[in-house]
Amino acid sequence: MKRHLYSVIFLLSVKTYAATDIQYYRHLVEKNPHNIHMLFNLANTLNHANKSDEALYLYRYILTNHPDETVVQYNCAYTFKKMGNPEKAIPLYDNVLQKQPENKKAHYGYAQAQLMLGNIQKGFTHFEWRHYEKKLLYNNVQRLKKVLQKNPNALRGKRLFIRAEYGSGDIFQFIRYFKILKKSGVHIIMHMYPPLIPLLSHHEYIDEIVPVGDPIPNYDYYMPFMSCAYVCNTTKKTIPCDVPYLKPDPKRETFWRNQLKHDTNFKIGICCEKKDNDITRPPLSRRSIPLRAFKQLTEISGVSVYCLQRLDEVDTHNAPPKVHFFSPFFDRKHGGFSDSAAIMQQLDVVISIDTAIAHLAGALGKKVLVPLPVVPDWRWMFNRTDCPWYPTMRLFRQKKEGDWSPVIQEIIQHVQKMITS
């Protein structure tokens, strides 16, 4: 049976085929209602089409007759996590890992479930399994962690290469750890995406920058960017949250201060549309809000709203008429996010969905309001309006999937209180 069961993450990548596939597998199941393979394929296809409740029912039905099938347990855990039930996902991931202790995907899913619950230390420990197949990289991180714990002075004068990983928001979130690492006296070499280099070159704890694509220099220690939290032994209570820990380019800041100095209104920056939603990451694929939905915000007396997105990232044609947009050179000519960071310094508050803009505003110590979908990404956790990663951030949580109206109204009310306070 096992060789015929496939994990949900290996399903068809084109969502438009899902309806046809569902119909096909329903037909097969009607003819073979006890065929576990057909049931499993139907469940996976339903899961891919975000019909999670029905998929979950089928996975659990299969497990009543085949309780030891690890691939079904994994998909069931994945689905619970995707639906915002990490508490139910964790025991299933545990079962998988007991039988398959080197199952990389189960470790990764388990890590996300723990992080969603705020179990930071346990979550980041299992998060390291994302690189387990690259034994040398995995072992390098373990070696660095041991040195930091036992004798951090041993790093003095050594060269630490920190490799760029994932997206810009992840970079902005985890670069905070450079200050901690630098206390050991280590020489920090940051491997970075070229568009971010102009902004991050002003970071005081970076000794050397190597653009992605350039030859990697000699180093003594090596780790990926998001291993910083694990290496620094982070718990929920020890998250380094002193802000600001990023700063804009002084020249860009002066430029934008002069550009906006005549605007005496309460100034709001906004980033809310996400055109390149990733359907394989459900929390992220449901985070986008049309800019037109914030029309009421733009109509508040004494308010100016500036769009912190490039023109090709947002539907400008249907945007509220009072929103200010910047030129096509915005965040391009002077480097990625260089203009955004400088403009944020002139604003009273930033409103941003779960994107790099939210992380950047938090890293700059700006007041930032973040609307989140029902099931958010792991870093925002659950049941809280504050954020342990960013003390100036306020979270606004969606109650019903797809319904942003109450969230937007709550944000507008919060902004109005800010204006009058």
Could you characterize the architecture of this molecule?
It is a single chain. Helix content is 42%, strand content 11%. The longest helix has 16 residues, at 135-150. Residues 6-17 have low confidence and may be disordered. It has helices spanning 18-31, 36-48, 52-65, 70-82, 86-99, 104-116, 120-127, 135-150, 168-174, 178-182, 197-200, 228-231, 250-260, 282-285, 295-298, 338-344, 356-363, 405-420, and strands at residues 159-163, 187-192, 208-211, 221-224, 266-271, 303-307, 323-324, 349-352, 368-372, 393-397. It folds into three domains: 2-131, Tetratricopeptide repeat domain (Serine Threonine Protein Phosphatase 5, Tetratricopeptide repeat, Alpha Horseshoe), CATH 1.25.40.10; 135-238, Rossmann fold (3-Layer(aba) Sandwich), CATH 3.40.50; 250-420, Rossmann fold (3-Layer(aba) Sandwich), CATH 3.40.50.2000. α17 links the parallel β8 (349-352) and β9. With 421 residues, it is α/β, with parallel strands linked by helices.
